[in-house]
Write a structure and sequence with these properties.
The chain is an alpha/beta fold. Helices cover 58% and strands 9% of the residues. The protein contains 14 helices and five strands. The protein has a five-stranded mixed sheet, with helices on both faces. A hairpin with a 2-residue loop joins β4 and β5. α1 packs antiparallel against α9, α7 runs antiparallel to α8 and α11 packs antiparallel against α12. It is globular and about 65 Å long.
């Protein structure tokens, strides 16, 4: 396979990468304008919200593919709930979008109470990538609560690549820090990187994208472009037939499965690539499992967090990890 003839058609193109960068800049400008005027930007996520059985699917399960959702099971008559609830709300504002807090009144939502197997209240669970995680029951000291939340945020990011959500400034309170202004501009550097990628100069494209990310680590155009260039670099010297034969004959060979998943993605077989790596994570352990999981997160970057195939694969990954 010749690197200059390789295509990402059917996966992600540079127009989509460019659009992601423009969308990021518009969103950041909207949040900055909202911070100045006191209005909430369109599409912003509130940090604390009440949820019932009717809204649980959309407000908790779907959101959990983008940000950890902490669930506070409470009731009006529960005195410990009145101690824990305000503390959770204050920390939700302090963590500024690293997790969301969903409050469920158990008296009004008995079905959810039973489905989660809650034995008593207050009870706190989390949902990450659609999967429930029990955290603790009863009121706990703030130091212990912070430790639990830190671990939750770390697991969500390291295991699933889930890093948070846009924040509604009104939800974060009057003392919230103003939204950061976008770094850059990087139009010239990004254009040069894209030109290098189109020309098959993968090394040059990788260096250019990394230069942008060194100044602006969250730049979506650079992140997508780098993930794409690194994927193409990994597969440029592979023999597709040999790789697929090795993967078929050695299902326990993690390196063979990872290489085959890379080829699947380059060929536009996105769900096949994700499914192969989820299956590999499920049947392996230790370093092998970690290698497959990390590669899966890297391929998520190529496709983009908003793609429904990524959302579906994140949920599948959560099922096999928990």
């Amino acid at each position: 396979m010749q690197p200059r003839n390789m295509s990402m058609s059917g996966v992600v193109d540079l127009a989509a990468v460019k659009a992601a960068g423009e969308a990021k800049q518009k969103a950041e400008q909207a949040r900055a304008d909202a911070a100045r005027t006191g209005a909430a930007p369109a599409g912003a996520t509130r940090l604390v919200f009440d949820v019932d059985e009717a809204g649980f699917q959309q407000e908790v399960l779907q959101r959990s593919t983008e940000v950890p959702v902490v669930i506070d099971f409470w009731a009006e008559w529960c005195q410990p709930c009145k101690q824990l609830g305000p503390l959770l709300e204050r920390l939700a504002a302090e963590y500024a979008g690293k997790f969301l807090l969903a409050k469920i009144d158990v008296d009004a939502n008995q079905m959810l109470f039973q489905q989660f197997g809650v034995q008593g209240i207050p009870a706190v669970f989390a949902v990450v990538a659609g999967q429930p995680i029990p955290l603790f029951q009863g009121a706990v000291p703030e130091a212990q609560l912070r430790q639990v939340l830190d671990q939750l945020v770390q697991v969500a990011e390291q295991q699933f690549g889930i890093v948070g959500a846009p924040v509604d400034p009104a939800a974060a309170g009057p003392d919230a820090a103003p939204a950061p202004q976008p770094a850059g501009p990087y139009d010239a550097a990004l254009t040069a990187a894209a030109d290098a990628l189109d020309a098959g100069d993968l090394g040059g494209a990788i260096r250019a994208y990394r230069n942008v990310l060194s100044d602006d680590p969250a730049n979506p155009e650079a992140k997508l472009g780098l993930a794409q260039a690194e994927l193409l670099e990994r597969v440029q010297d592979l023999d597709p037939q040999a790789v697929r034969t090795a993967a078929a004959e050695n299902p326990a060979d993690v390196r063979a499965q990872i290489a085959a998943a890379d080829l699947d993605l380059v060929g536009g077989h996105v769900e096949d690539a994700f499914g192969r790596l989820v299956d590999t994570v499920q049947r392996t352990a230790g370093d092998d499992r970690e290698a497959a999981r990390v590669r899966l997160l890297e391929l998520f970057e190529v496709i983009g967090a908003d793609d429904p195939r990524v959302t579906k694969a994140r949920t599948a990954l959560a099922r096999v990890l928990f």
